[in-house]
Write a structure and sequence with these properties.
alpha/beta, Rossmann fold, 8-stranded antiparallel β-sheet, 7-stranded antiparallel β-sheet, 25 strands, globular, binds 6-O-phosphono-alpha-D-glucopyranose
């Protein structure tokens, strides 16, 4: 996730770009940069870290009078957060900003290098500007060169390009990453979301995937694969607070809805036709490794548990999971044939970081799965895989959990292939299921309104048990954690086969059981466990693709062939349930009492 702003007009461009980027800083703040052409001359500034650094760097620069300008705030995916890797990226006479991932950049880069092009950064983005200039050197037609460039890109992008070859024009293209165009008289704005242009533009057009074109002389020319097309604008919202949440009531709600999209980002360039590839990893990391230990806290611990089922079952590698705060003081016996994995959304959780340092002192190789590049845990680890969930604002983690779990599933297949513990047929089945995940994460109106209706029945009682078996046990733990974090009601996650060894003593009509009953994994076994609870009068909310007649309430899911698709679909149901219960109880969904997003104390 990165943020983009663009502007053509007579106003002070630096201020428009910096104010706009400020609104988008939530999308990433590894570095920021702006490029402006006025009087046919290019100027640019970049700074690493928060936007304030760029403000400080540009304080003496002024840019009033007609010109074109683009700006970017970065969330690193390819290459470290350095000034060279910061956008805008420059060619000889042009600049580009980009949000998304160009999947075939390596191939394009190699071709351009063979033509003698020199690259300055490690980013995928830089290929765009060189490709544009390469075509321009052949045909001297800016728009033609830009369309040819866009034609060559595979993957997700929202991109803006300016060039001394057309000093009064901004070229734009969108596919898979958000971008809109704002209008106010002859002034034209571009941005990744509404907020940077609210209060400046009055009309807006939300670009569709596959659209591209250029803005010049107060006009926008729009194209797609069928050629030039007309479009109509609509009035721009005026409420900024609402716009930051993209119209959702809470950040948590927005983040639940975003999961489908960010999951695609997590997979781009990694889920290939016949295998998983992580450019962050190589076989050397796994040399001599016969065992995996994963350490994490909170929600990240639940994704770790899910991963341990996958790693042992599919990759056939022994895997233990530890809560970081426990691990630190248990005087653990560590062997150097163990790969030590830490999982953290923030990359700053004190217990997880300390656990990692302990493992490193014992000489273990380390890998982190993290959402924040350049965080302490990422810097401390030998290798890191970024989850690419984008900034998560709701304290109750949702999309971070989903993407961590996806990375662990991908890592399982990566290791399985490396250690030859998976057949190509089985791998193909897993990859196929993986590609369906974004669909399984889509929230339909029907599902959301069903959970809104159901939630009113779950506001009291003496407790909730979320139950599941196998992979669905960690999901039960996570479902219970979500509910208690934001509803303040007591909830526990439990393995359903274990209920009869104690907790079933609590069963009565005021005990709410949320039963995760996937069709593709031990259905009959779970069913028996739920029947035992129902026989003791517990109130059952069953979540399953299979109708269950003893359920008091029932949410029917769609996927029933692959456990992970069932997992992700049911995960969304539990998140929405927690959200709607919390809303009805009048709690602060995004900032629940007593909690913090990042816990940097022991
Ligand atoms: C806090 C947050 C949780 C999170 C946990 C671990 O308690 O409120 O949502 O799961 O920390 O955080 P991490 O950033 O390491 O994943």
């Amino acid at each position: 996730m990165c943020g983009i702003v663009g502007y053509i007009g007579n106003e002070e461009k630096k201020e428009i770009l910096l104010d706009g980027l400020q609104e988008l800083e939530y999308r990433g703040y590894d570095s920021a940069g702006i490029a402006i052409i006025e009087n046919e001359k290019l100027n640019y500034f970049k700074a690493i870290g928060k936007l304030q650094n760029l403000r400080d760097k540009t304080k003496d620069y002024q840019s009033s009078g007609f010109g074109v300008s683009i700006g970017h705030t970065r969330w690193a995916t390819h290459g470290k957060p350095t000034e060279l890797n910061a956008h805008p990226h420059l060619g000889k006479f042009s600049f580009v900003v980009h949000n998304g991932i160009i999947e075939n950049y390596q191939e394009l880069k190699t071709q351009l290098q063979e033509e003698g092009v020199h690259f300055l950064s490690q980013t995928d983005t830089e290929t765009i500007v060189h490709l544009f200039e390469y075509y321009y050197s052949q045909n001297s037609d800016s728009f033609n060169s830009f369309s040819k460039t866009i034609d060559r890109l595979h993957g997700a992008y929202a991109t803006l390009l300016i060039s001394e070859s057309s000093p009064d024009t901004i070229f734009f293209a969108k596919n898979g990453s958000p971008m809109l165009i704002g209008f106010d008289g002859d002034d034209i704005y571009f941005a990744s979301s509404d907020t940077p242009i609210i209060g400046r533009a009055t009309e807006v057009y939300y670009l569709e995937d596959g659209e591209y074109g250029y803005a010049k002389n107060g006009e926008v020319k729009l194209f797609d694969k069928n050629g030039e097309k007309s479009f109509s604008t609509k009035p721009l919202a005026t409420d900024k607070a609402m716009a930051q949440k993209d119209g959702y009531r809470f950040f948590m709600e927005k983040e639940i809805y975003e999961q489908s999209l960010v999951m695609s980002d997590t997979m781009i360039g990694r889920v290939l036709e016949d295998r998983i590839d992580f450019e962050e990893l190589d076989s050397e990391l796994f040399e001599g490794v016969t065992n995996i230990k994963i350490c994490a806290c909170g929600t990240s611990y639940h994704s770790a548990l899910t991963g341990s089922y996958l790693l042992e079952r599919v990759a056939k590698i022994p895997c233990q999971v530890e809560i970081a705060s426990e691990f630190r003081y248990k005087e653990p016996l560590l062997r150097d044939d163990t790969l030590f994995i830490t999982i953290s959304q923030s990359g700053e959780t004190a217990d997880t970081l300390e656990a990692l340092k302990m493992a490193k002192r014992e000489g273990l190789k380390s890998l982190s799965i993290c959402n924040v590049d350049n965080s302490s845990i990422v810097r401390e680890s030998d290798r890191a895989i970024l989850t690419r969930a984008g900034i998560e604002k709701g304290v109750a983690s949702t999309k971070a959990f989903a993407t961590q779990t996806m990375v662990l599933w991908m890592l399982t297949l990566y290791i399985a292939k490396l250690q030859k513990t998976i057949s190509q047929d089985r791998l193909d089945i897993e990859l196929d299921a993986m590609r369906h995940t974004p669909k399984a994460l889509l929230v339909t109106d029907k599902l959301h309104s069903k959970l809104t209706r159901l939630s009113k029945r779950y506001l009291h009682g003496h407790g909730f048990f979320f139950i599941g078996r196998d992979l669905f046990f960690p999901l039960a733990l996570e479902g219970a954690l979500k509910l208690k974090e934001i509803s303040y009601l007591h909830a526990e996650g439990y393995p359903s086969g274990e209920m009869k060894h104690g907790p079933i003593a609590l069963a009565d009509s005021e005990l709410f059981t949320i039963a995760l009953m996937p069709k593709s994994l031990h259905y009959e076994k779970i069913k028996s466990n739920v029947e035992e609870l129902s026989a003791r009068d517990a109130t059952i909310l069953a979540i399953s693709p299979e109708p269950f007649e003893l359920a008091d309430d029932f949410v029917q899911t769609i996927y029933d062939t692959h456990p992970m698709l069932e997992f992700f679909e049911m995960m969304v149901v539990t998140q929405l349930l927690a959200l709607e219960v919390s809303v009805r109880l009048g709690n602060d969904v995004d900032m629940p009492r007593n909690l913090a997003k990042s816990v940097t104390v022991e």
